[in-house]
Amino acid sequence: MFTLGVSDHVMIAHSFADPFFGPAQRLHGATYAVEIEVSTPALGPHRVVMDIGALRAILRGVLETLDYTNLDDHPAFPERTSTTERVAEHIAVLVAKRLTTLPADAAPIGPARLRVRLGESPVAWATFELPLPAP
Amino acid sequence: MFTLGVSDHVMIAHSFADPFFGPAQRLHGATYAVEIEVSTPALGPHRVVMDIGALRAILRGVLETLDYTNLDDHPAFPERTSTTERVAEHIAVLVAKRLTTLPADAAPIGPARLRVRLGESPVAWATFELPLPAP
Amino acid sequence: MFTLGVSDHVMIAHSFADPFFGPAQRLHGATYAVEIEVSTPALGPHRVVMDIGALRAILRGVLETLDYTNLDDHPAFPERTSTTERVAEHIAVLVAKRLTTLPADAAPIGPARLRVRLGESPVAWATFELPLPAP
Amino acid sequence: MFTLGVSDHVMIAHSFADPFFGPAQRLHGATYAVEIEVSTPALGPHRVVMDIGALRAILRGVLETLDYTNLDDHPAFPERTSTTERVAEHIAVLVAKRLTTLPADAAPIGPARLRVRLGESPVAWATFELPLPAP
Amino acid sequence: MFTLGVSDHVMIAHSFADPFFGPAQRLHGATYAVEIEVSTPALGPHRVVMDIGALRAILRGVLETLDYTNLDDHPAFPERTSTTERVAEHIAVLVAKRLTTLPADAAPIGPARLRVRLGESPVAWATFELPLPAP
Amino acid sequence: MFTLGVSDHVMIAHSFADPFFGPAQRLHGATYAVEIEVSTPALGPHRVVMDIGALRAILRGVLETLDYTNLDDHPAFPERTSTTERVAEHIAVLVAKRLTTLPADAAPIGPARLRVRLGESPVAWATFELPLPAP
Q: How far, in Å, CA of F115 to CA of F127, rounded?
């Protein structure tokens, strides 16, 4: 199995409605260090998992929908539910959707998987992993 | 699949009885950079893998049974057998046990897995991974 | 010259009033990875720069005044001016003040210096450095 | 499952013939930060995944066949096809071959797996993973 | 004293003519992890060391003159003399020159200093530091 | 000013006699991540700060006098006084001594400085810095 990974980051504000989160109910924020990995059973015609430039551009494009925003206002996280796990899932779903629009010779050979890791601090992180839909 | 990870560290002395270990038969020590990850197929009622504060407290509690000790004296490592692999397994078993005592709304949804990674130096590490018992 | 360093982190929301900051005028946030270093010409009676437990507690105490808050509401940053440089300076001044209250045998030998580094993302950071006042 | 990991690095020149690679068609180079991991279901007689000294020596031995070379001249990468994915695969195959020559008490217990990760920059990496042949 | 730092990277091929360099006389390459820091005694009108976007753009602009090239062909390193120290100095001189062309309200307040650090591998790096000319 | 840096690590046991150190009075251990930097005003005849291979070999040679030992038995740390600061100073003094024995064309041009950094955990470190004696 081959995997290609790239990283980037995003800076957001948010808070949690659920009293479960203690002091994190207050408005605060995070820099998420974002790593994404695409895994495939075989390399494509260019002998890569996929076009690394395309993968970086897709990640940047997805992160730009979140960068410098308050996730409390984002429709994907109703009632202030933007846990790191949920943000990882949200990013993964958007990246997966964009991956399916790539031209065949730039896209990963299936069955492929996507993994998104969000580092929220030097001591805590969350990941979400999903199979990529066939193109 | 969702994963939540947290990290901490522990400082121990130890030595190895087995001549296989060469100079590491001498009394020496290590700082283990400890990372633990809990993976679940779905998020719980608070939209997290589990209570991150509880996970950090469990890890700290387990590490405190080892911190600033000489593992040569520890009953879990009879005859000086505290290899990094064995220490990772020991920590994993203790963390898993404590995870089963969490209240239902703070515990990971099963079937869940636990992975413990010990970095013993900038160039060497070991991990141990096990399924978590159903609560 | 001897230096002792410890690290921690803090998660905040903020925005900037100055149009100079472009998209960062919007409410967003950051995880600051905080490193502080105390430098002295000589070691104290316990052969350390200072009590490392005291240094970590001072840093945590200072960061707790900022953790999980919106810096736009903080009196130290009037008119939304909490640039990373200014937050580093603010933390440094508070840490320096607390260092002067340590008992003589736990405090650094003068003339000492303090340096605070805030990593705001994997690719950007700011530091502030000042001489510590004589106790 | 137990895993043992070690890291090293290698510095190479290369270029790509395929116009797909844009500016990377020009002769350039890379420092690959190389991490390898061996995973086994159980520990061997010395209570380790395998002899860590042997694993480091095998990795170094394999990397020495590439270090300070131009991969454009290497028979494993005909027509300038040394993508990071392909280099990871090449290293994995060579490491796997050497692992099968270890004496039984130093080798990993099967069924074992090998994973090779090449970091080509602070923001991009590739991995290749394969089952180890039974010794 | 305030410091602002940003990082990026560059991938180059090179070799050394001087027999002093042993195997590095052969054509090979490197990924340089590049960190630059600008230090000033005081913050400017926007309460920053300088415009961080401008600093990142300057660094990227300078690195683009080197990225995906063979330094053996570069006039700044005659007779194959592109040691990491010399490349750090070369980048620093180019960054310094571009810093002097910034509009006054985006440039660092003097007397300022610039420091460039090139990580050539996980275990080796070089830096060059110089005072910035007054604008 | 030019700086050359290399890193390595060492694994030791130790304890502290001074009650000031609390639980660290018990026998424990550490992996020290060791970074050393040599700074000079100018490059030597080979256009480097010094021979990087020689610097790595000197560091390794010094660390081998400590690796896999119990510092409580080491004459440099009488009465169990091997604080991280003191170990950094000890390593620095030994490295400095060996640097003065290098042949002129491999040694740093003076006035040179040496800085030794010991990372004792992911969240704590100490450094010692001294001018190098003229050769």
A: 7
Contact state of E68 with D28 under an 8 Å Cβ cutoff: yes
Q: In C36-83, which ranges are continuous DSSP H helix?
A: 52-64
Nearest CA-CA partner of B35 in E16, A119, C3, E32 = A119
What does the pLDDT look like over C38-47, one tens digit per residue? 999 999 999 9
Q: Is this model's pTM higher than 0.95 or not?
A: yes
> B130 to chain D: nearest residue by CA?
D1
Query: Could you tell me how many helices (H) and strands (E) chain A has, helices first?
Result: 2, 5
Give phi and psi for F37, each to the nearest 5. -130, 135
Identify the three-state secondary structure at position C125.
Answer: strand
D113-121 vs D28-40, strand pairing mode: antiparallel
Picking from E83, E125, E130, the nearest residue to F48 by CB comes out as E83
What is the complex's ipTM, to 2 decimals? 0.96
Sequence-separated (6 or more) residues with CB below 8 Å from residue D81: A47, D16, D17, D18
- At residue D5, what are phi and psi to the nearest 5 degrees? -130, 145
Angle, helices A52-64/A84-99, rounded to nearest 10 degrees: 130
- Taking 3-state DSSP, the helix, strand and coil percentages for chain D, each rounded to the nearest 5, stand at 30, 35, 35
- Cα(F11)–Cα(F69) distance, integer angstroms: 8
| pLDDT given at position B129 | 98
Q: Are D92 and D116 in contact (CB under 8 A)?
A: yes
Which residues pair with residue C11 across a beta bridge?
C31
Burial class (CB in 10 A: 0-12, 13-18, 19+), B134: exposed
CA E20 to chain centre: 25
Is F29's CB within 8 Å of B31's CB? Answer: yes
DSSP of B9-70: EEEEEE---SGGGGGGGSSEEEEEEEEEEEEESS--TTSSSS-HHHHHHHHHHHHHTTTTEE
- Looking at chain F, the whole-number percentage of residues with pLDDT higher than 70 is 99
Amino acid sitting at position A113: R
Is the pLDDT at B82 greater than 70? The verdict is yes
Question: Which amino acid, one-letter code, is at C6?
Answer: V
pLDDT digits (tens, 9 = 90+) for B83-117: 999 999 999 999 999 999 998 878 899 999 999 99
SS3 state of residue F106: helix
Q: What distance in Å separates the CA atoms of residue A5 and residue C32, rounded to the nearest whole number?
A: 24
Going by their DSSP bridges, the two strands F2-14 and F28-40 should be labelled as antiparallel
Q: Which of A124, B67, B39 is nearest to F27 (CA)?
A: B67
Describe the crossing of helices D84-99 and D52-64 by its angle, rounded to 10 degrees. 130
At C75, list the tokens. 């009196």
User: Could you check whether the bond before residue B131 is cis, i.e. omega within 30 degrees of 0?
Assistant: no
Which chain A residues are Cβ-neighbours of B46 within 8 angstroms? 18, 20-21, 83
F92 CB-contact burial (10 Å; exposed 0-12 / middle 13-18 / buried 19+) = buried
Measured CA distances, C108 to C52, C91, C94 (Å): 11, 18, 16
Distances (CA, A) of C94 to A40, A101, D75, E22, E43: 51, 52, 61, 52, 19
Quickly state the pLDDT bin for F134 (edges 50, 70, 90).
Answer: confident
Give the model confidence (pLDDT) of B24-38 as tens digits.
999 999 999 999 999
Amino acid sitting at position A3: T
User: For A124, which residue in chain B has the nearest alpha carbon?
Assistant: B6
Q: Which residue has the tokens 């099967």?
A: D110
**Closest partner CB to C121 (pick from A31, A68, A121):** A31
Could B13 and F70 be called an inter-chain contact, meaning their C-beta atoms sit closer than 8 Å? yes
Say how many Å lie between the first and final Cα of chain A, rounded: 19
Instruction: State the pLDDT at residue B135.
Output: 63
**One-letter identity of residue C83:** T
* DSSP annotation string for F20-83: GGGGGGSSEEEEEEEEEEEEESS--TTSSSS-HHHHHHHHHHHHHTTTTEEGGG-TTSTTT---
